[in-house]
Design goal:
The complex is a heterodimer. Chain A is mostly helical. Chain A has helices at 2-10, 12-38, 41-64, 72-93, 98-119, 125-132, 140-159, 161-169, 171-176, 181-203, 208-220, 226-249, 255-281. Chain A is globular and about 60 Å long. Chain B has a domain at 6-83 and 158-231: P-loop containing nucleotide triphosphate hydrolases (Rossmann fold, 3-Layer(aba) Sandwich). Classes of the chains: A mainly alpha, B alpha/beta.
Chain lengths: 288, 254
């Protein structure tokens, strides 16, 4: 921990990592709350895994065809948005088969990514970074993309708060009040896709879903409405990513995995405490 | 004579090949107070959804204020069954009521002072003052229903459609609810769905019986035969107009 604080003064990469975590946390707090409240975390999971296709393809084009302007994050954005639109359109047009489509997008996305990475010459250490996150490798270039995406996601997510809330809570009623429910639902999935990309840089493809859901779930225990949940959830995500980075730095542990274990631990702790608190408030229940 | 506010002409609707409603003709005049009754799965909710334009008839026409139902939506208030909503959704009473004001303003959908005042007024009318900040999940079934009615009323509709407003609330609250509806009925047409035929409030002006087909009766005509016709089989009517005495209950078999 002490090492982390001293190195933070002199190592720019550590400051970039910290800033990446904080920026991604704000988008995560806002969009993760919608995802948890609307119960679409399985969709978020499908989107996050399909991101590998975009990152692999971008890396391949960059190395083999020398598209040097192309960045893996560009590929990630394209793949995430494509996955979100496919899942969204299918779920609106053919509701009963939604989960099958999500599963297919999930696995096919990963498969495409693996193929591209396999055909990209050189060491495949990229793959590990994409899957499990490598926040210490974030460059100033990455940080610019991350900041841009963050501003976009947070401003859209908050400006249309009232409409997103209505569509998530009761889409039928929202339609009756003249809201284009389909458009807002697709927009919400696109925001989810962009947030997933932001979080991939912090914790990697596989663990994104935990950071998108756990802080919001913890926040939900202490919130009376969706906006409070967003604020609290943002706070928890900043806490988890920062603490994950700080705790993993000294012993040289992977930061992403440390962050997730920390978040999971807090979640289980909160669930356990609230279980016992509720039992004490309503004595007799659970014993009968 | 004034044109009916809701008009269904020879409307049929089927779901997955199963006929739900067949050749329905219905005309509702302004300031009517309809009670839509019938067994579960008989097509009561479908009838409401046809009027709202949420489902389209397989044949026939639905007109509201002489126009297609989609165009009439701003003038209709709707309360769905509260069981169709996620009970764990983190949303406050005030937020839900304000949803009824969406579509009145422009831009991003921010609420203004007018919206806040309208919400306050309907909350008072539904006796929910003091609960504005409470999460929906912490409310009782009856309170949830009143919140959803408040949301339907906040846009000052000319037609109020209520799906099972009396489910899961006790008799005292139900009586109160009908007092409120009776007052509202002076300004708006009201149609409510109930599966409970044992009780139709004295404020109800006509009863619409729905079981694939639709039959309209004025309230005074309601009889045991009608119940038999709708539910099938022998039923006993519950009497609400007597007190329990020491000798026990007297049942009247129609």
């Amino acid at each position: 921990m002490g090492e982390f604080l001293t190195d933070l003064q002199c190592q720019p990469f550590l400051r970039y990592a910290l800033l990446t975590g904080v920026l991604a946390s704000v988008a995560c707090g806002v969009v993760g709350t919608y995802v948890v409240a609307r119960r679409i975390s399985y969709i978020a999971g499908g989107i996050s895994h399909s991101v590998l296709a975009g990152m692999g393809a971008a890396r391949y084009l960059e190395t083999v065809h020398h598209w040097t302007w192309l960045h893996p994050l560009h590929g990630a954005v394209a793949a995430a948005l494509a996955a979100a639109l496919v899942i969204g359109v299918v779920s609106m047009r053919a509701r009963e088969r939604e989960d099958t489509v999500i599963g297919a997008v999930w696995a096919v996305g990963m498969a495409i990514g693996v193929l591209f990475i396999f055909k990209t010459p050189g060491y495949n250490q990229d793959l590990m970074g994409y899957l499990f996150g490598n926040v210490l490798m974030v460059s100033p270039d990455d940080l610019r993309i991350i900041a841009g995406l963050d501003i976009l996601v947070v401003s859209v997510g908050l400006l249309f708060y009232n409409r997103f809330l209505a569509v998530c809570f009761d889409d039928e009623f929202a339609r009756l009040r003249g809201i284009h429910v389909g458009r807002y639902y697709l927009a919400l999935l696109c925001l989810t896709a962009l947030t997933v990309v932001l979080l991939v840089t912090v914790v990697g493809i596989i663990m994104v879903i935990a950071l998108l859901t756990i802080p919001a779930a913890v926040a939900g225990r202490f919130s009376r409405n969706l906006f409070q949940m967003m604020l609290l959830s943002t706070g928890f995500t900043i806490l988890f990513t920062t603490a994950g980075l700080a705790l993993s730095y000294g012993p040289d542990l992977p930061a992403g995995a440390t962050t997730i274990v920390l978040a999971g631990g807090v979640y289980i702790g909160v669930l356990t405490v609230s279980f016992f608190v509720r039992r004490r408030q309503r004595p007799g229940q659970g014993e009968t | 004579m004034e044109a009916p506010v809701i008009e269904l002409e020879n409307v049929s609707f089927s779901y997955n090949g199963q006929p739900v409603l067949q050749s329905v003709d219905l005309a509702v005049s302004r300031n009517d107070f309809l009670c839509i009754v019938g067994p579960n799965g008989g097509g009561k909710t479908t009838l409401l959804k046809l009027v709202l334009g949420l489902v389209r008839p397989a044949s026939g026409t639905v007109r509201v204020f002489g126009r297609p139902p989609e165009k009439a939506r701003p003038r209709i208030g709707y309360m769905p069954q509260h069981t169709s909503l996620d009970p764990l959704f983190p949303v406050s009473v005030r937020d839900i009521v304000l949803m009824g004001r969406l579509g009145t303003g422009g831009g991003f959908g921010f609420y203004g002072r007018k919206d806040a005042r309208a919400a306050e007024e309907v909350l008072r009318m539904m006796k929910l003052t003091g609960l504005e900040g409470r999460p929906f999940s912490s409310l009782s079934g009856g309170q949830r229903q009143r919140v959803l009615i408040a949301r339907a009323l906040v846009s000052r509709p000319e037609i109020l459609l209520l799906d099972e407003p009396t489910a899961s609330i006790d008799a005292v609250i139900e009586t109160e609810l009908f007092e409120i509806l009776n007052r509202l009925n002076r300004e708006m047409t009201i149609a409510l769905v109930t599966h409970d035929l044992g009780f139709v409030s004295r404020y109800v002006k006509s009863v619409v019986c729905v079981n694939r087909r639709v039959v309209v009766h004025p309230t005074s005509e309601i009889s045991g035969e009608m119940i038999n016709e709708i539910y099938g089989g022998d039923m006993q009517m519950v009497r609400h107009d007597h007190r329990c005495s020491g000798e026990g209950h007297q049942w009247v078999n129609f």
